[in-house]
Amino acid sequence: MPQFLSDPDEETLQSIVEALAGSGQAVSVYDAEDNLRYANETYRGMFLRDYEGPFTFSDILRYGAANGFGVRIDDGDVEALIARTLPRRRSTRRKSFETDLLDGRWFWIEHTLLPNGWVMTVGTDISALKHNEKSLRQAHESALLASRTDLLTGLPNRRYILELLDEGLAAGMASGAGLCVAIIDIDQFKTVNDTYGHEAGDAVLRHFAQIFRESLRPGNHIGRIGGEEFLLLADDRFDDADRLINGIRASFPPVTMPDQATRRPIAFSAGLTAALPHDDRSSILYRADRALYVAKAEGRNCTRIGFGMDRAAPSHVAAQEKTADRT
User: Fold this and answer.
1) Catalytic pick from 11, 79, 141, 228?
2) Cα torsion for 122, 127, 129, 135, to the nearest 10°?
3) I need a labelling partner for 157 at 20 to 30 A (CA). Which of 43, 141, 216, 252 fits?
4) Exposed/middle/buried for 316, CB within 10 Å: 0-12, 13-18, 19+?
5) Does the predicted TM-score (pTM) go above 0.85?
6) What is the average per-residue pLDDT within 77-81?
7) Which residue has better confidence, 182 or 131?
């Protein structure tokens, strides 16, 4: 049953709290010295339980924190919470806020400062609303992830990896940090499909994606931009990006085909370039793509460099670009 912890000093106070007592809401009244003068059953279950006092706002918070119930304190420091909260308890006549409890429930708190300096709080359980909000947020995040992900490989899809490229170029312009870009193409991929079937081709793509994903450090990205072609973004110095690609190539494990009996090595060609001060998406991809043609023409399974406007490619490179086979 609801109970007064001491007699209220105003008749109107008693009528107010009695009207709220059976509402299912959490009701409390604190006097001007922050002693709890009234708590209904819901409030007692949230913050008191078998607590025997002293019934001050601060001591109630301390008791809950020490015994694993009551309000959730993100940093676990109840004294810091009290120090932050007390100066604000009577700073405004009315305020509303949400709070979550250690038992997982959420409450919307209506906080009212009465004329005599007493404080009345009325809490409404909004756990169901918060659960729905969380579900909607998770659904939105899942939909956003799906819109950015290549379904076969689990890598960023073409649209998203190009967005990351644009962001990387913009960040580099602002900070002067380096960005290296490589277009990577699996060698002889058509032969895999023609010899073993498209299921085997899918297995090669998934294997390729997994090895690269596991080899990159945080901040670097690889996405599938079409067929057997991938785009690598590395916020590294040029030499480091080159070593990264060649190191992955040197230790690339063979793929097990769907028949579980055939193991086939995977080779890939790469065209690598570094961002220049005024690069946009088109210019940097053009250099990387041009370098990839050269890698294919020079025998595949290698990395070649895309030269900037200030570094002309040798004449034999330009000729090879026109005839390179990218299968």
Assistant:
1) 228
2) 160
3) 252
4) exposed
5) no
6) 94
7) 182
